[in-house]
Structure formats: C-alpha cells, structure tokens
C-alpha cells in the first residue's frame, strides 16, 4: 500500500506531465498541487525542497525532485506494475530513453520561450494556472517570467532555431497526449517553421498566433 503522495507541478511543464503519468500507471492515489509559474520558486523553497524545479514529489514527508528521481522513488514505493519494464534489457532501454528525454526537454523549453517572447499569449496557452482565479496574476507577471526564463534556459533565438530544426518527435507527442497538444507555431518566425515543413497555426481556443517577422 502506497503512502501519502503529493505531486507539485505546473501546467505546461512536460516533465510534470511525465511525472503525473507515473503514479497513474501504478494506480497510486496522489494529490496534485498546481504552482503559479514565477512565484513557484518561493513556494518550492518554502516547502523545504532543495531546488525550485517542478515536478517534485512528497512521499510521506520525503522530498524528491526531478522526473527521473521521481520514477525511481515511485518504483521503490510500489514496484508493481513496473515503470522500467520486466527484464534487464527493457530496464536499460527505458533508462536510456529517459536520459534522452531529459536532454530533449531543454530543447522544447527553449523553443517555447522563443515563442513566448514574441507572443505573450503563448505563455497563457501553455502555462495557464489550473485555478482560473489565479490567471490575472499570471497576466501581470508573464513578461518578467518570460525574460527570466529566457535567461535561465539560455533560450536565445539562435538556440531555438537550431533546436526546432532538430526536433524529431512531434508525431509521438500528439499520439501520447492528444489532449495536451498546444499550438504555438505561428508565434515563431515563418523562416524557422518553413525550414521544418510546418506553418503558422491556431491555438486550442482558436487564437491565431503571430505572424512574427
Ligand atoms: N530535468 C528535470 C527538469 C525540471 C525542470 O526544469 N522543470 C521546469 C518546468 S518544465 C521548472 O521547474 N522550471 C522553473 C524553474 O527552474 O524554477 C526533470 O525532468 O524533472
């Protein structure tokens, strides 16, 4: 029987979605706490976590941060059904894929912040707070958060354009998380999109993003 599990996350964080799929796969009861992007830094440190990052997990008071660390903690807590596969070969393959995914997250993040700089609404589409009453606060902080995140993730235009050109996994993401797909395409320069055979598009709420020079 699993202990008391709480997952700290924010909407639009891909590692948070990954961490959320883990207790669900294991059918572990857990509580989700949605953070506000920006002030989350103070909330996380105030809750006794070493880092500001989400996803973070508390299991009976034990604090774990990072999607890979969370996967290991949940595996210890409740080994069945396994997250890493049934035999050594599968476990190695899953661990390798998780390491690849961790590097890949950074590329996705950089592309996103390039889009958010051009169209602040992209941020509200990807990171809307789960509680609608908190969203006006996000409107106030979104430009500052975008600047800080751009610096923190070194999400320059140079890096974003290069990342987009190397992005291999859009189809897989759409298959795994059809309801989680968001469109930020048109907030990116048309030249970057043309290079990967994509075009500007509309957000889930019908908003047309961009165009951006
Ligand atoms: N590799 C880590 C990435 C964690 C991470 O960078 N999380 C982002 C959200 S996607 C975050 O918390 N950013 C805000 C911050 O760094 O303060 C994982 O898989 O958990």
Structure, briefly:
With about 210 residues, this protein is an alpha+beta fold. It is about 50% helix and about 10% strand.
Unreliable spans? 202-213
**Strand-residue proportion:** 5-15%
Structural class: alpha+beta
| List of distinct ligands in this structure | glutathione
Order of helices and strands: EHEHEEHHHHHHH
Q: Note the gap between the termini.
A: 55 Å
Q: What does the main sheet amount to?
A: 4 strands, mixed
Quaternary organization: single chain
Task: Give the topology.
Blueprint: E1 5-9, H1 14-26, E2 31-34, H2 40-46, E3 56-59, E4 62-65, H3 67-77, H4 88-118, H5 120-126, H6 135-152, H7 157-166, H8 170-176, H9 190-195
Parallel strand pairs: 1-2
Antiparallel strand pairs: 1-3, 3-4
This protein binds glutathione.
What would you note in describing this structure?
With 213 residues, the chain is of the alpha+beta class. The chain folds into two domains: 5-77, Glutaredoxin; 106-195, no CATH class. Helix content is 52%, strand content 8%. The chain is built from nine helices and four strands. The protein has a four-stranded mixed β-sheet with strand order 2-1-3-4, covered by helices on one side. Helix 1 (14-26) runs parallel beside helix 3 (67-77) and helix 4 (88-118) runs antiparallel to helix 5. The chain is globular, with a radius of gyration of 18 Å. The protein starts with a strand and ends in an 18-residue tail after the last helix. Mean pLDDT is 84; it is low at 202-213. Bound molecules: glutathione. Glutathione is lined by residues 13-15, 41, 52-55, 66-67, 102, 105. Residues 13-15, 41, 52-55, 66-67, 102, 105 line the site of glutathione.
